[in-house]
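Annex B.
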Amino acid sequence: MIRVMIAEDQPLARAGLVAVLESESDIEVVGTAADDRRALELARELSPDVACLDIRMPGRDGIAVARELCGPAADPVIPVLILTTFDLDEYPFGALEAGASGFLLKDAEPELIVQAVHQVASGQGTIDQSLTRRALREFVERRSLQPVTASRASEVLTSREHDILLLLAQGMSNEEIARELVVEVSTVKSHLARMLPKLGVRSRLQAVVWAYQNRVVGVPGPEGR
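Response regulator transcription factor: predicted structure tokens.
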């Protein structure tokens, strides 16, 4: 059972999200909040598997709350899925920077929201496809390389880990990577578990960002907006 906490200041939107998630037999909404203070209290009290946070709430925004729940200083780390009606570039960029595992627009189809919750709960990052290229390009243009550079990664990653990183950057799931490499899904997961600490990242999504940021794969151009 995936235990989810929802922070959303609009009652109707909050109720709709609860209804969508609780229609799934393996998801339980364990708490809801309407502002940043209550969101942090509930998250620390309940330790949910996923915290779904709205961008704009009374007090601090969802990105600031995410930073406390899943940022570098967070202990324990609570995976965060950001949900918003706003698709401005700075929001997905800020969500990634704060350590969020996913960023999705609220007008996404219900099944995509459910899928995103499953992905975040299982340690797989997710970001709305219409925003991916913009967010990655923004990340590359506005930030310098992380401590583990591409040249250094070639020394610490095995050839199979490097292959998996490239396939991750193409948006493949564990199952798709396993089929591409003709290996078991459990083997892919084992490689990922060893690879992420080597890159100094916590999630698949951060690994993809790292790959673009360090030019391991090409950054999509403006025509990909």
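The beta strands are 2-7, 27-33, 50-54, 80-84, 102-105, 126-127. The chain has eleven helices and six strands. Further annotation is deferred to the next reporting cycle.
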